């Protein structure tokens, strides 16, 4: 029995149709006729002996189980096909091309600037494209092949995602500078001391559950006065006396955008730090660009005292 025969064009057409779940959208992106896309995919399915896409009248496409698995493999194949071309062109020269990296929205301003500066200094011909988002969106981007790597917190990661710890983030309390606890010389506080205080909650998926669980584990039922998805909005509300907050990332300056100041207080309770991880899809071979980015994270965050 002869091996299946397929072309790169067929794979590219399939990838676009599977990503958009639409022949029309794929044809517009590829700037070819819809019939060309449909024919190429039909030939690919016939050659493989497997149906990858289900056609629904007036409702676009959906992937079969086999199609979902094949789509993941095609993304890997196309990425490394492009890298093969680059390698041949480079002939031992510096890395070139684009690397797409995702980052959790509250981690990005703290982790990315210095990391990107160092990576671009080492690999000036690689363009790093950033994708900021929340946990769920970043996982979806990894699975869709829209990002090769994502830096996020190490919770709620499924078995199909590989992760490597590149840091930790310890929770701390935040109060206004005229708060009664702000004058404490030790700059430490127990969670029970905040039990009667109103709270400003960072209201992001998973983050809110994690922050509230810290309090509930200490026997404290938080009195949430304000909720906001904005990290800096939380700090500004605290600075204006609307309540205390619990956060993980700490800026070097205690002044908020509005000009008022906040006072961070270390927790005396035994509260585990959140792991910060660099995630990639399991079973997908990383490009050399992604491998170099991961190695740089290891170097930068392996030093003693690095968080």
Explain this structure to me?
This protein is an alpha/beta fold and 307 residues long. It has nine helices and 13 strands. It has helices at 8-20, 23-30, 34-48, 65-90, 108-122, 135-143, 207-217, 231-239, 288-301, and strands at 53-56, 60-63, 97-104, 126-133, 149-153, 161-169, 172-176, 188-189, 198-202, 223-228, 245-247, 262-267, 274-281. It has a five-stranded mixed β-sheet, with helices on both faces. Strands 8-12-7-11 form a four-stranded mixed β-sheet. Strand 9 (198-202), helix 7 and strand 10 form a beta-alpha-beta unit. Helix 1 crosses helix 3, helix 1 (8-20) packs across helix 4 and helix 2 packs across helix 3 (34-48). The chain is elongated.
Q: Helix tally?
A: 9
Helix content: 25-40%
Shape: elongated
Uncertain residue ranges: 303-307
Strand content: 15-25%
Strand and helix map with partners:
Layout: H1 8-20, H2 23-30, H3 34-48, E1 53-56, E2 60-63, H4 65-90, E3 97-104, H5 108-122, E4 126-133, H6 135-143, E5 149-153, E6 161-169, E7 172-176, E8 188-189, E9 198-202, H7 207-217, E10 223-228, H8 231-239, E11 245-247, E12 262-267, E13 274-281, H9 288-301
Parallel strand pairs: 3-4, 3-5, 8-12, 9-10
Antiparallel strand pairs: 1-2, 5-13, 6-13, 7-11, 7-12
Outline of the structure:
39% of the residues lie in helices and 24% in strands. It has 9 helices and 13 strands. It is elongated and about 75 Å long.
Characteristic terms for this protein:
elongated; four-stranded mixed sheet; alpha/beta; 307 residues
């Amino acid at each position: 029995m002869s091996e299946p025969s397929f072309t790169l064009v067929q794979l590219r057409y399939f990838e676009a149709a599977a990503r958009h779940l639409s022949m029309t959208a794929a044809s517009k992106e590829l700037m070819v006729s819809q019939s060309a896309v449909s024919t190429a995919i039909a030939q690919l399915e016939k050659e493989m002996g497997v149906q990858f896409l289900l056609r629904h009248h007036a409702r676009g496409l959906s992937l079969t189980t086999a199609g979902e698995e094949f789509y993941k493999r095609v993304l890997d194949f196309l990425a490394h096909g492009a890298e093969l071309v680059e390698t041949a062109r480079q002939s031992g020269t510096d890395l070139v091309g684009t690397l797409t990296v995702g980052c959790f929205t509250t981690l990005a301003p703290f982790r990315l600037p210095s990391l990107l500066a160092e990576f671009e200094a080492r690999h000036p011909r690689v363009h790093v494209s950033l994708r900021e988002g929340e946990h769920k969106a970043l996982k979806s981007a990894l699975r869709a092949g829209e990002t090769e790597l994502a830096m996020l917190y190490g919770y709620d990661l499924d078995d199909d995602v590989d992760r490597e710890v590149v840091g930790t983030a310890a929770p701390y309390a935040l109060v206004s500078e005229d708060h009664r606890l702000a004058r404490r010389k030790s700059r430490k506080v127990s969670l029970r001391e905040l039990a009667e205080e109103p709270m400003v909650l960072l209201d992001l998926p998973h983050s809110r559950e994690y922050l509230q669980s810290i309090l509930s584990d200490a026997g404290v039922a938080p009195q949430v006065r304000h909720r906001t998805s904005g990290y800096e909005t939380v700090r500004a509300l605290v600075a204006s006396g609307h309540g205390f907050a619990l956060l993980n990332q700490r800026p070097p300056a205690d002044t908020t955008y509005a000009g008022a100041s906040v006072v961070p207080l270390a927790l005396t309770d035994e509260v585990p730090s959140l792991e910060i991880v660099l995630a990639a899809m399991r079973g997908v071979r990383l490009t050399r660009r992604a491998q170099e980015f991961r190695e740089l994270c290891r170097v930068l965050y392996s030093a003693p005292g690095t968080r």
